Every structure is written in C-alpha cells, then in structure tokens.
Amino acid sequence: MQDPKNYGETMKSKGGLSxxxxxxxxxxxxxxxxxxxxxxxxxxxxxxxxxSVVAWFVPVSAVERALLFSVLQLILIVELINSAIEANTDxxxxxxxxxxxxxxxxxxxxxxxxxxxxxxxxxxxLWQKFRS
Length: 132
Fold this sequence. Notes:
Helix 2 (16-37) packs across helix 3 (39-57), helix 3 runs antiparallel to helix 4 and helix 4 (62-92) runs antiparallel to helix 5. The protein has helices spanning 4-11, 16-37, 39-57, 62-92, 98-130. By secondary structure, it is mainly alpha-helical. The chain contains five helices and no strands. Helix content is 86%, strand content 0%. It folds into two domains: 1-37; 39-130, Helix Hairpins (Orthogonal Bundle), CATH 1.10.287.3610. The mean pLDDT is 92.
C-alpha cells in the first residue's frame, strides 16, 4: 500500500505530451462510462445528436448556429458533472442521507435548468428566423 502522504503527489500530472495523451484517454473513458452506465446521458444523446446535425443545416447566422450547438453540448456537460456527483456520492455511501440527497437533487436541478436554457435558446432563435 502506498504512503497516504505521497499518494496525491504520485497522482499528479508530470506535464508534456504524455499528460495530453492521458487527458484524452481519461476523457474518452468518461464519455464511454456515461454512455454505458447513465440512462439520462443515453436519453440526452438521443436528442442532442440529431439536433446537433439539425443545427448545422438551419439557415441562421454562424453565431446563432454556434449558440444552438453549444447549448446542446452544455446539456451533456452538466449531465456528466451530475453523474460524477452521483457516482462519488454513491462511492462514499449507499446509505440514505440528507446531504447525499441534497447533492443529487442539486445536480438534477442543474441538468433541468440547462435543458430549460437550451429549449428557450432554440425557441428564440427559431422564432426569430421563422416568425411570419
């Protein structure tokens, strides 16, 4: 077993190209884990992927297109953070606890608010473009 005082130091990145390669691997591992184990992430992908394609073809300005695409990716980002909070909370303890519930509920609220932002953004851009 490693000395607990030195454990954090051994986990620190050393920098350079190997750090970048490791970061990309960890990113890919995180995306795969979310797609394999998180039902909410899977459901959001079913909406985000097709809408991301649609965003490319909607006849809007480049800035509006970037906005449509970005708010969709923001949903996935916040869902990943929420899933990380839930996984860490469950790792600490599976027992019911008010603070664990609070952490999970706040993560869920963050996802909901992000979906709301994306919905309002898409509605505003499309309304501006296609109103009569």
